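Sequence in, structure out. Go.
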Amino acid sequence: MALSGVQIFKYLPKTNCKKCGHPTCLAFAMKLAAKQASLDACPDASAEAKQALGEASAPPVRPVTIGAGDGAVKVGDEICMFRHEKKFFNPSVFAVAIKDTEAGDAAAKKIEAVKASEIDRVGQHLKVDAIAVTEESGDPAKFASVVKQVVDDAPGVPLILVSINPAVIEAGIAHCADKKPLIYAATAENAEAMAKIAKEKKASLAVSAAGLDALIELSEKVKGMGVEDLVLDPGARKAKDMIEQYTIIRRAAIKKNFKPLGYPVISFATRDDAVSETMAASIGVMKYASIIILNNIEKWKMLALLSLRQNIYTDPQVPMQVAQNIYKVGEAKEDSPLLITTNFSLSYFIVRGEVENSKVASWLAVMDNEGLSVLTAWAAGKFTASRIAQFITESGADKSVNHKELIIPGYVAILSGALEEKLPGWKITVGPREANALPSFLKGRA
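Output:
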C-alpha cells in the first residue's frame, strides 16, 4: 500500500538540509508520496529508510536506461496517465531495425541515416535514438557481425538486440556488453537463459508474451530470477490492440500501482508500407509506448514523428519560450532591419527561419511575454505599445542599429500609432501578417 507524505516523513532525517532540492523534509516527503521524486535524492537517508521507503517511493513505471555515456536514453519513470495532469517525462525512443541479413552496405546505409537524422525544431535537437539489430538468418555469427558493424560505425548509439535465441544474443552481446544494450526478448520458453545473460552482462531485458495475463506471469517470473530492469511487449501489433493493451498496462501501473506491469513498453510499429508504419508509430507515441521500432527512417517520416513526440512530451502547462534579447540573424550590421516578436518558441524560430531564408541580415528583438504568441500576448495585454517601448528603450536596441525603425508583426498593426508616440523619433513599420511573407518583404526593402 502506498504511504502518505506524513508516513514517509517519519523515516526522513528531518534536518531540512535542502540537499534533495526541496525546502524541507516534509516537502520532499510529499513529493515522494506523489511519485514526483526519488529517495535517492536524499543523501542522508538511513538504511532503514531506504528499506522501508524504497518500494513506496519508487515511480509506478520503473525507469530503464539503454546505452551508456552521453548517448544513453532513459525510458519509463512516468507518473501520470495524461500529459495535462503533470506532463510526460521521458520521450519515446525511436529505433531503426537492421536485420542481420543486411550486413555490409545495406546496414551501413541505415547507420548513416541514424547519424544524419538530427533535426533542429524550436530550439531542440531531435533524432533517431537507437538501432535494433534483428536476427533473421538464424546464424549467431552473422548476427554478431552486424552488431560489431553498428558498434564500430556508431559507437554512441544505444543498441537493442532482437532475437529469442539465447545463443544469438550471447554472440551479439559479446561485442557490446559495455554499451548496456536492451535484450529482446525473454519468452516463456527461454526466460531462464535470457535472464542469465541479462544478469551477467548487466543489461535490461524485454519480456514478450501474447496477452496481458501471460505477460504478467512472465514479468514476475523474470523479476524473481533477479532481473530488475524490464521492458514489456504484450504482443500487440494491430492498432486496436496497441491502444487497448498499452492503455491497460499504463492504467494498471499508474492507478493501481500494479508492479508486474510497472515497466516501459516496447512497440514494433514495423510495416512494409511507410504511411502505415508512420501511423502505427504515432499511436505508440500517443499511447504510452516507450520504445518504438521502425523498419525505415525516411526524412519525411521522422520529421512527422519527431515533431509529434516533441509536442506530446512538452509540458502543456508551461509555454515553450526563449530568453528575451536582441538576436543577430546572419551578419547583421548597424544598417540592418530591426524586427520584433514575442518569446513564444514557435513564433521565434519560425520568424527567425524566414528571416534566414530571406538572406537579409537582420536584428530580431524578442520580447518576454511569458511564452505567448503575438496575438495571444496582445489580447492578454502583454504585447502593448507601452511594454514594447519600454523593452526597446531598456534593451539598448538603438546601440545595435544606426537607424530608428522598428518592424512590427502585421497582426498588431493597430499598435503602430501608439508606438510612435511612446518611442519619439522612431519609425514604426508594419510587417507582414504571416512569417512566410517575410523573405519577399525584406528583399523588397533591400
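Check: The chain has three domains: 5-55, 64-312, 325-445. Residues 148 and 175 are 6 Å apart (CA to CA).
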